[in-house]
Design brief:
single chain, alpha+beta, five-stranded mixed sheet, 27% helix
């Protein structure tokens, strides 16, 4: 994802808290976005389309990242969490 590689992404406080609750840090989020693939595209949100991306954290676990594009074509990470075990 070019926007992430270029540093054009932001992580919400909610996403940080949810990721940390599952043992993930900022580098895990970045890696999951760079290695991930879009699993679902949610188009019915009035705030804009959301994407569920499944990628890999640095420890090899699957990580789900929910994000959307901003008006400036940056990625906003809304939440992140571990795959249910």
């Amino acid at each position: 994802m070019a926007a992430v590689r270029d540093g054009r992404y932001e992580v919400t406080e909610h996403a940080i808290l949810e990721a940390e609750a599952d043992g993930f840090g900022p580098l895990d989020l970045r890696n999951a976005l760079l290695t991930g693939e879009i699993r679902r595209k949610l188009t019915r949100d009035p705030r804009g389309t959301r994407y569920i991306i499944v990628g890999t954290a640095l420890d090899g676990r699957a990580m789900y990242v929910v994000c959307r594009f901003t008006e400036l074509k940056e990625v906003r990470v809304i939440t992140a969490y571990a795959e249910d075990e």
